[in-house]
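Rather than argue in generalities, we reproduce a single protein record, letters for residues, whole numbers for local backbone shapes, just as it appears below:
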Amino acid sequence: MSNLRIYRMLLIVCAGSAMLVHYALAMGSADVDHGEAELLQQLQDPSVSELLAQKDQEPSVRDVFLVNNASFAVPLSTLDIRIQNLLKQISEEQFPSIDFLVSQHRDKQGKGTILAIREFSEGSTGVLDDESFQKVTLLLPQIRDLPTAIRAQDILGFISSGSSSAPEHGRYGMLQSGLVEIGAAKEEQVEINIDLVFSQINTWDHFFFEERQGVALPDWTISGHFIAKIKDLSALTSWQGASESPHGAETYPSNWNVED
């Protein structure tokens, strides 16, 4: 169990205790636990509040990597057909699993280069089970020489984010425009600059609210400077995109205990 998750649980318990302390003090009870009162004062310390706010804003995990001789495990070109099949099943009052938000990021042996970004957030302090993920997978032409710059028209790209505990509730998009710049390799890693624009679709609206289907959402822009590790396909974890991944293992980092 992560330290932040433990702290959240303690905070929730302490918050409940704090309510009891306030009530007891208001009623003039002599049975107030002074340890609880002291803990309440500590939680109200501005420095503690500042630390909690900082933790809420920081991504907990970020993996950025390149894999040569790789491709999408399931061709991205088939996504439209798969989505139409899902819509048909839902219209027939079936409730299929919307798993492509994670499964589309699986990789296999291929003739291209995969550039991937995997981000995981532990969520807000004081709230349990609100962890979330964001994944970007780009299929580039096989990279033979570095440095290089590749425009979006030569890239197949997919992005998605959602709840780690309920990944079907999220959003996804296809690459529309932009540029990827990759620097020279050094010690099994490369510097990368990306400035990419994706379409954006909300799965809940698209699949379950007929009146919202087809409603355009703002473009989804991903940009920044990253250090990417060069990895072998065989070394990828389920979180990173291993082609054979057990259910539920793709939305949490490998060292995260879902049972916690």
Notes: The longest strand covers residues 107-121. The beta strands are 61-72, 107-121, 132-141, 148-151, 156-163, 170-182, 189-198, 201-202, 220-231.
